[in-house]
Design goal:
The structure is a single chain. The protein is an all-alpha fold. The chain folds into 2 domains: 1-53, Arc Repressor Mutant, subunit A, CATH 1.10.10.60; 63-205, Tetracycline Repressor, domain 2 (Orthogonal Bundle). It contains 10 helices and no strands. It has helices spanning 2-28, 35-42, 46-52, 56-78, 84-101, 108-112, 124-145, 149-155, 160-182, 192-204. Keywords: DNA-binding. GO terms for molecular function: DNA-binding transcription factor activity; transcription cis-regulatory region binding. This is Transcriptional regulator, TetR family. InterPro entries: DNA-bd_HTH_TetR-type_CS, Homeodomain-like_sf, HTH-type_TetR-like_transc_reg, HTH_TetR.
Length: 212
């Protein structure tokens, strides 16, 4: 009983640290926030934070996993839309919301990969946890794109997993470029709210059809 209580207290403290860190990342930017800054906000010592997270990178991954799970929930809803183009448009909206909220602060792939010497910024356990969420999202999209003839027609003979990987890369790359520039009125090339739907229309729809 006592052991279970201590475990619940530990999980509650971890969750508090993650929630506070996420708010600080939003408000002050990822690069500006330090472990000491998080500790001061919660009114604990930096050592207490390090009891739960070995580094700032591990803390950011836990925040990222939380946000990726929220993205997964929204995409799962969008995948139920019958029309494949409308489903992809909804997924684009889901990704835009995620990227605006959190994705722009950190590159998922930087945290999932290791360098040529096998060094990684975060533990294998956390990398696996983050990778599992990304994998589920991609698998869900790939399955949706292979569900019926209307969806498979959009693939143009390319395997669903390859199309999904390309779409994910394009969505992240476009978001990375478009979001900062869309806030500058003197540069009218990038409309963050419209650029992903435009790309989906260009790549996957009948070129003779007019965009809605």
């Amino acid at each position: 009983m006592f052991k279970e209580l201590k475990e619940r207290e530990k999980l509650a403290r971890q969750q508090l640290i993650v929630e506070v860190a996420e708010k600080l990342f939003h408000k002050e930017g990822y690069d500006s926030v330090t472990i000491r800054r998080v500790a001061e906000t919660i009114d604990v010592s930096p050592g207490t934070i390090y009891t739960y997270f070995k580094s700032k990178e591990e803390l950011i991954v836990c925040v990222l996993i939380h946000n990726m799970k929220l993205l997964e929930e929204e995409i799962t809803k969008s995948l139920k839309i019958n029309d494949p183009i409308k489903a992809l448009m909804a997924i684009a909206d889901d990704y835009k919301a995620y990227y605006s909220r959190f994705g722009r602060y950190v590159n998922v792939m930087d945290l999932l990969t290791t360098d040529e010497n096998g060094y990684a910024l975060v533990s294998k356990e956390l990398r696996n946890g983050l990778g599992a969420v990304v994998e589920r999202i991609l698998e869900g999209i790939a399955e949706r794109m292979n569900r019926d003839n209307a969806s498979r027609k959009l693939l143009k003979g390319i395997p669903p997993k390859r199309v999904t990987a390309a779409m994910w890369a394009v969505a992240h790359g476009i978001s990375y470029i478009a979001l900062p520039l869309s806030t500058q009125p003197d540069r009218g090339w990038f409309d963050f709210d419209q650029v992903l739907p435009d790309v989906i229309h260009l790549l996957l729809t009948d070129t003779t059809a007019k965009p809605k």
